[in-house]
Structures are given as C-alpha cells and as structure tokens.
Amino acid sequence: MPKQTPTRADFLRRTLEEDIFNGRLKPGDRLDEQSLAQRFNVSRTPVREALRQLSASGLIEVRPRQGAVVSVITLPRLIEMFEVMAELEGMCARLAARRMTEAERQSISDVVTEAEGFAEQVDLDSYYINNWKFHDAIYSGSHNHVLEEMTRSLHHRTAPYRRHQLNRPGRVHESLAEHKKVVEALLAGDAEAAGKAMYRHVNVQGDVFADFLSTLPTGYLKG
Question: What sequence ranges are listed for the domain HTH gntR-type (predicted)?
C-alpha cells in the first residue's frame, strides 16, 4: 500500500505537539485559530482539524467562550497518570525483553550510548529527544500494537510534565543510570528485571515527586 502524504492538518498537529512537548506552549496557553492560520500561512480549516486531533489526544481542551487551550492537569490526576504510565511502561519493558530482535537491541544500546554525551554536556534539549527515542524503542520492542498505542497516547499527555522533570539538578545523570539498568536487563532477556527497572524509572513518588513538582512553572497544575 503506498505511503500516505501527510496533510496540512497532520503537519500542524505535529508542530503544535512539539511546541507543547518542548515547553514553547505551556498548559493554559490559548490556541487562537486565526493566529495559527496566519503563523502557518494556511486557511482555518486545517487548523480546526489539527486542534480537533489534539483535543482527542487530551493535549488541549476546548472551553466555552475561550476556545482551545493547552490542557492544565489537576495534581491528583497527574499522579494517577504517572501511576498508570509506570505500569504500562513496565509491561512494555517485560515484553520487549522477550521479543526484541537483535537489531532492536542494538538500536536501543546505541541510543543510550548517544545519551551519555548529552548528559555529560547537560544538553537538556538533546537529551529529551534521546529520551523519547529510548522509550519509543521499548514500546515498539514490545511487539504488542494495542499496548504501544495506549502507552504512546499517555506518554504524549504527560510529555510536557516529564520534560520539566529533567530541570531538577542531577536528574539527567540519574535518568541515564536508570536507562542503563533497563537496557542491561533487556539485553540479558530478563523480563522481570526489565519491567521492575522501567517501573521504578517512570514512577516518580515521595521526595522525588515533590522535587519534580518544584520544577514546574506556576500555572502548570491545578490543586
């Protein structure tokens, strides 16, 4: 089947997703159709479709008389999302340890090797992109399409918050060490160890979670 050419709405959605994931658009920011149409030099039709897709994924919400805004998540809901995220990613890692091909194992090893340079330079932007590649490789490595879709969807919704976790001093090096433990288990084919390592990596709690919340700008969360 020939590969479909991305539509303008697809391009706009991906661009706005990146703006949200990279913090250029913050929770609570308004997304005005006319302004976006002018920015991208398109009609308002693809803008509306892109916003509809973003709304369906939970990254934005449409409010009466306000239009579309980047979603603001309540603290209890954010905690619940991270709890579920940890379970889903742990499941992905367990399956990946059993199902990854040799090429996939080599690829994720290369991703972690690349991350070492970014961590050493404390290059947060490059490390974040690498971090996305790391997690995505494990989702794919699970070879379970339903699980992949569910995990990626929730990862997208928590992405703006997960990115800010890297702002905590020393967190990048901690994250890299956690990634290495996951990969060690994956390469050994140890499903139980891989699942536990990934669960601990994602499930921020206690003092770690308090430190994480302290990195979020005012307005990111509602009580």
Answer: 6-73
Q: Which two tokens stand for residue 20?
A: 């949200």
Domains (range + CATH), the chain = 8-71 (1.10.10.10), 75-222 (1.20.120.530)
User: Amino acid letter at 156?
Assistant: H
Q: SS3 of 122, please?
A: coil
What's the whole-model pTM score? 0.74
- Give the alpha-carbon dihedral of 111, 154, 78, 52, to 10 degrees: 120
